[in-house]
Amino acid sequence: MSEDQGGTVRRTRLPRRRTSVRKARDFARETAGAWECRELADALALVVSELVTNAVVHARCGAGRQVALTLVRGDGAVRVEVRDSGRGAPAPRGAVPFTEESGRGLAVVDAVAADWGVRDEVVGKTVRALLTLEPEVSNVSANGREVAGRATSRA
Length: 155
Prior knowledge:
Strand content: 25-35%
Shape: globular
Strand order of the largest sheet: 1-2-3-4-6-5
């Protein structure tokens, strides 16, 4: 783990293993506490968990590659960036049958984040999500009800 820019950026690298998802979630919760954004801890841990899971499970890249997790604190928001060396943009699946155990990760990110998107890198990609401290900017309020005015840009 490293910290830059006066504590506004925190980074960690994780092996591409399923056990890294829990470490990423713990890192997100620890960061939310350090930044005194405890009200964002659950949403941050959820989004980090879904994005790191996608990188670990679905990124088509060689053995031994790592996943880079970066959290950036800004005014009223936290940006999550998960970078892997796999190519191709992830896309939410259509309706997933209730009996399926997976396939809802990006739908969860879409519901919780104010915005999310994918950026191609020279090697691989970065999937990013923006979480705000202002419930009216997010898709879901603190009590789980839909909120109007959600950002829709995915670029």
